[in-house]
Amino acid sequence: MRETIILLSGLLCDACVWEHQVQHLGRTYDVRVPDLRHFDSIATMARHVLDGAPERFSLAGHSMGARVALETVRMAPARVERLALLDTGIHPVRPGEAERRQALIALGEREGMEALARVWLPPMVSKGRLDSDPELSERLHAMVRRMSAEIHRNHISALLGRPDAAAGLAAVRGPTLVGVGSEDAWSPPAQHEDIVAALPGSHYRVFEGSGHMAPMEAPEAVTEALTQWMALPLDQERETA
């Protein structure tokens, strides 16, 4: 039986984010991308992941999906064999965050998802990437257009009500990968150093030239990192601080 990898997408994202990884990792592994669009809490998303997962699996999350991954580990640490956290954070809600996110919700409700995409997407990728890579730009815009104002509200509600990541971090036991785009302005590399510090023995990768959407902006590098992560032995113990 093939090992299972579950890939978790982030805010306003679907399986499109993981196309390269599904295509290439799927040759060796059972790769699944759960639909998290219609849930409004991180905990509910994590329970949905567990309900559809085999008894043991490897778990990778991008952005909001990484927070879901940590909550999944907290709920069922013995079931998650490996963990990968990409372009994310472990900090609580920051001052002004709720107001900024609510303003984007209002924009999408007032003017539609394409109008939201025009404002939301540029900071999500490396500077100038949307202009220099029209194919990527259209894929990202199309993904946001597939969403709805209701899905956006669900995801923002989940993020603003996110649990403390500490319990999830404390529950991690298997091989762990932490990865981030070198040009990620939303969740910058320095933010990931806190995650690495909280997970002694984790493997840290910086994807050069990529912004926040690393699985799409640097697909080969992300797939290579995940391939190496899956090759790590399961009996590898994390160092203790």
Q: How would you describe the overall organization of this protein?
A:
With 241 residues, the chain is α/β, with parallel strands linked by helices. Helices cover 47% and strands 13% of the residues. The chain has 12 helices and 6 strands. A 6-stranded parallel sheet has the order 2-1-3-4-5-6, sandwiched between helices. The longest helix has 15 residues. The chain is globular and about 50 Å long. It starts with a strand and ends in a 10-residue tail after the last helix. The C terminus is likely disordered.
* Mean pLDDT score: 95
Assembly state of the chains shown = single chain
Shape: globular
Main β sheet profile: 6 strands, parallel
Compressed to H and E, one letter per element, the order equals EHEHEHEHHHHHHEHEHH
- Percent in strands: 5-15%
For this entry, give a set of tags.
single chain, 241 residues, alpha/beta, 6-stranded parallel sheet, 12 helices, 6 strands, 47% helix, globular, disordered C terminus
Layout of secondary structure:
Blueprint: E1 4-8, H1 19-25, E2 30-32, H2 42-51, E3 57-62, H3 64-75, E4 80-86, H4 97-111, H5 113-120, H6 129-132, H7 134-146, H8 149-160, H9 166-171, E5 176-181, H10 189-198, E6 203-207, H11 214-217, H12 219-231
Parallel strand pairs: 1-2, 1-3, 3-4, 4-5, 5-6
Helix pairs in contact: 1-12, 2-3, 4-5, 4-8, 5-7
Short description:
By secondary structure, the protein is α/β, with parallel strands linked by helices. 47% of the residues lie in helices and 13% in strands.
